[in-house]
Amino acid sequence: MTLQIGTxxxxxxxxxxxxxxxxxxxxxxxxxxxxxxxxxSEMVTSRKELWGTLKTSRRANHDGEPGPxxxxxxxxxxxxxxxxxxxxxxxxxxxxxxxxxxxxKKVCNKWAGSALMRDEPLALEIVQAVVDAAQPFNVPxxxxxxxxxxxxxxxxxxxxxxxESAGVQMLTVHGRTREQGYKGHAEYDTIAAVKAxxxxxxxxxxxxxxxxxxxxxxxATGADAVMIGRAAQGRPxxxxxxxxxxxxxxxxxxxxxxxxxxxxxxxxxxxxxLYGEFxxxxxxxxxxxxxxxxxxxxxxxxxRMNAIEDCAGQLRAVDDYFQGLADRMDRMPAPTADEExxxxxxxxxxxx
Length: 352
Hints:
The chain is an alpha/beta fold.
């Protein structure tokens, strides 16, 4: 099943969630290679004084990335957000996504992210400004939000109608309030209500960690697609596993250890190329840690690997570990049912 956003036809209905510090270009491209039909960039600030920073330039790097290129922007000022949309469109963005879902205190204390859901007039003003700025370029605008600010203020349905009227062409809803952060469990009734209230595509997000859960969430919400975040950390092949299950009703065999070794080594090389030696070896540690967290001797290896200070040494260590693992097993172990992912998303929303 394909999905349309503006003039762009997406390959399937499995999306990679934008996670700052995680969904950089190498990770997005890896997920696309392994079955994701769409990937949104890390959140980019609307603060013009930060556009020239190394962090923002890396987040805006789309070299060699398959389209459509989707960039998520965040901020609290309508004019600044409109300017940020144009800035990113001129640098290759083909879809602009507005962040109204990030629950991080660093973002919400500035009234950005999901905090905007508390100020409905401002939220709508921002959306209208961004849609108007993107329209001359024929670039569609999408938006990611939560069910509301708190248990007592679930306003996603009302805002969804307003955003659709303003010209937003796709809505993603994370099934938690800002108050919840990433605690507790996502609920899907509100997402189903949003889907029933609008005509644009709706994407369900939150706690989708297995093929069965993806099937159940699609059925429960009527959503057009699902967005996966933390469950793809260290397991980017989850997208092809879900695709196979939705198509056949059967489970795809876990990947061969030899394939995962190749995927991770290739990913690390691309990661180092983007970040350089000093930052690359350090920022790669979390990715490696996610891969090995449930593997034999994984924690011990992670502790040793975290002491390595150069890329070549890190690559050798990863290569040696997976070579040894391949001597013990042919395939990666199957994940336990709805295995808890890391909490990286909890702090992954900072924009500066």
